[in-house]
Amino acid sequence: MTPSSERVILRIHFHHTGDEELYHQLLTVLDGISPRWQALPPSAADLDITGSLKYFDRSPHDLAQVLALRTAALYGTQVTIGGGNSRLLAAMAADATPPGGITIVDAAPEAVAGFLRPRPVHVLPGIGPATANLLTRHGLHTIGALADTPLLTLQRLLGKANGREIAARASGHDPRPVTPGAAPASVTARHDFPRDELDPAQHRRALIGLAEQTGAELRGTREAAGALTLTVRYADRSHTSRTRTLPEATSHSAALAQAAYRLYETFGLQRARVRGITLRASGLRPAAAAHHQLTLDPSDDKARRIEKAADAARARFGPDAVFPASLAPSP
Q1: What's the pTM?
Q2: What confidence tens digit (pLDDT) does each residue in 248-286 have?
Q3: Domain 9-170 fold
Q4: Taking the chain, what is the end-to-end CA distance rounded to the nearest angstrom?
Q5: What is the pLDDT of residues 150-192, one digit of tens each?
Q6: Rounded-to-integer distance, Cα 303 and Cα 161, Å
Q7: Which PANTHER family match (predicted)?
Q8: How far is CA 224 from CA 20, 47, 216, 265, 290, in A?
Q9: Which end of the chain is more exposed for a tag (fewer CB within 10 A), N or C?
């Protein structure tokens, strides 16, 4: 049994269809294990089970099994669970686990090192493809090599703040608590590629579709988004996320697409094998209360009129009645 003083956190990935209502229902299952959970939309959550271990008199692995069984029994949904003494380790354990499995990293320093050190640098949270390429060019291929590198060297490569943070993560240090609270209101759209997709043009095509879907849903509920989060999932089942606060809250698909493009460019993807892309709009507020910066560009006004007409056509004839020409199937 893990000592009650040792923090134990689970990262849960719900294998659901992207239904936001179902996601909120799945989160209620966590309350039956521990009240200390933090939603990570669109399909994950962190759960601090430190205080629950003694109450249930079970090991972390056994308690994770209880959670998996309850989720399957109540909602027919499979979960993948990782666990460790920090949110970092829990997330990495979950990412390294086959779908439907459970991996718990023991808190002993040798167990943490044994899990982290052999892994490639690109699976460490906070390291995207561009940073991974930089590190590997300097001979740092594994997290163990990263942990053994002097801090000043990492800071010269990555910058002072980033170097310090990456060095701490490479050693398994992550003091972030699980912050209880309901899942924030958001709208999520997801695109899965039929195969590993390396073509940036196809990535951008997916972004257009996600922005169109997100904008249409926001306009349907008369809401505007204040922030966007873009998550790119790779062939090795790792992922990278970026969030950007929008200059003004909007439900305009073109504005959402432009913001998504800018987020995408920050990933520095070069021949990355992308498996899927998710776009999440958050910071929702009533559209009537959202401020729109006036412009003298007649094309912007025209685009908004066309968008309004397209929404009316979709409401009458179905969601596929109107779509951008760039999303038309190839002849």
Answers
A1: 0.64
A2: 888 898 899 999 999 999 988 877 899 999 999 988 888
A3: Alpha-Beta Plaits (3.30.70)
A4: 61
A5: 999 999 998 898 899 999 999 999 999 998 876 667 888 999 9
A6: 42
A7: BLR3025 PROTEIN (PTHR35369:SF2), BLR3025 PROTEIN-RELATED (PTHR35369)
A8: 17, 30, 11, 23, 7
A9: C
Of 43-47, 100-104, 246-250, minimum mean pLDDT range: 246-250
Instruction: Report the C-alpha gap between 142 and 71 in whole angstroms.
Output: 35
Q: What residue segments make up the domains of the chain, in order of their start? A: 9-170, 186-293
Q: Three-state SS string across the chain, please?
A: CCCCCCCCEEEEEEECCCCHHHHHHHHHHHHCCCCCEEEECCCEEEEECCCHHHHHCCCHHHHHHHHHHHHHHHHCCEEEEEEECCHHHHHHHHHCCCCCCEEECCCCHHHHHHHHCCCEHHHCCCCCHHHHHHHHHCCCCEHHHHHHCCHHHHHHHHCHHHHHHHHHHHCCCCCCCCCCECCCCEEEEEEEEEEEECCHHHHHHHHHHHHHHHHHHHHHCCEEEEEEEEEEEECCCCEEEEEEEEEEEECCHHHHHHHHHHHHHCCCCCCCCEEEEEEEEECCEEHHHCCCCCCCCHHHHHHHHHHHHHHHHHHHHCCCCCCCHHHCCCC
Range in 66-75, 133-142, 265-274 with the lowest mean pLDDT: 265-274
| Whole-angstrom distance, CA of residue 326 vs CA of residue 208 | 8
Rg (CA), the chain: 22
Which residue in the block uniquely carries the two structure tokens 């879907």? 213
Residue 118 burial by Cβ neighbours in a 10 Å radius (0-12, 13-18, 19+): exposed
Do 262 and 281 touch, CB atoms closer than 8 A?
Answer: no
Q: Which amino acid, 8?
A: V
Distance CA 38, CA 183 (A): 8
- 204 and 303 Cβ atoms separated by less than 8 Å: no
What pLDDT, on a 0 to 100 scale, did the predictor assign at position 177? 93
